[in-house]
């Protein structure tokens, strides 16, 4: 009987994005589409990280600044800037602005350092772990946590 060295359950594909000089990975299962920057219609009285909405093939999609949501400085749009359209179970369809989409990488689950959280500890990190690809470390984002509304204290 032939044995397969890796099966599809042992790997996860991530889109590698850049925010500033840092590289992050987003699980490809959360991604619906990647589009070039386009006109974003502002929406009044929303959080500063909500840039507005776009019309994508007749669907109105809210767009967030991933930089502002993660506490970085304001976005600077370049020819490499993209809007990644996410489909998240708890949040529906939304777009996040990233500085650049680099590549798709397939990481073996054994090559991902997962973060563990104590059950009594508040889980406030945006990361599920760190993966290594081609000698580069990639911080793997938990997009459900990243886009979740923070409770006001």
Assembly category: single chain
Structural class: mainly beta
Shape: globular
Total number of beta strands: 11
Q: Topology as H/E string? A: EEEEEHEEEEEEH
Strand content: over 45%
**Helix percentage:** under 10%
Structural summary, described in words:
Helix content is 6%, strand content 48%. A six-stranded mixed β-sheet has the order 8-1-2-11-10-9. It has a five-stranded mixed β-sheet with strand order 3-6-7-5-4. With 153 residues, it is mainly beta. The N and C termini lie far apart (59 Å).
Descriptive terms for the model:
11 strands, 153 residues, mainly beta, 6% helix, five-stranded mixed beta sheet, six-stranded mixed beta sheet, single chain
How do the helices and strands line up, and which of them pair or pack?
Blueprint: E1 11-19, E2 22-27, E3 31-36, E4 50-56, E5 59-65, H1 66-69, E6 82-88, E7 92-98, E8 100-108, E9 112-114, E10 127-133, E11 136-141, H2 143-147
Question: How would you summarize this macromolecular structure in one to three sentences?
Answer:
The chain is mainly beta and 153 residues long. 6% of the residues lie in helices and 48% in strands.
């Amino acid at each position: 009987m032939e044995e397969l060295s890796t099966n599809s359950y042992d790997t996860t594909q991530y889109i590698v994005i850049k925010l500033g000089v840092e590289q992050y990975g987003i699980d490809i299962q959360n991604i619906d589409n990647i589009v070039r920057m386009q006109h974003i219609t502002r929406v009044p009285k929303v959080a500063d990280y909500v840039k507005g909405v776009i019309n994508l093939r007749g669907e109105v999609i809210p767009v967030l600044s991933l930089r502002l949501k993660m506490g970085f400085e304001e976005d600077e749009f370049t020819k490499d800037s993209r809007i990644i359209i996410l489909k998240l179970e708890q949040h529906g369809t939304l777009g996040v602005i990233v500085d650049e989409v680099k590549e798709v990488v397939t990481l073996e689950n054994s090559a991902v350092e997962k973060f563990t959280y104590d059950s009594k500890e508040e889980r406030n990190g945006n990361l599920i772990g760190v993966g290594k690809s081609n000698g580069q470390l990639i911080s793997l984002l938990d997009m459900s946590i990243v886009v979740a509304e923070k409770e006001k204290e």
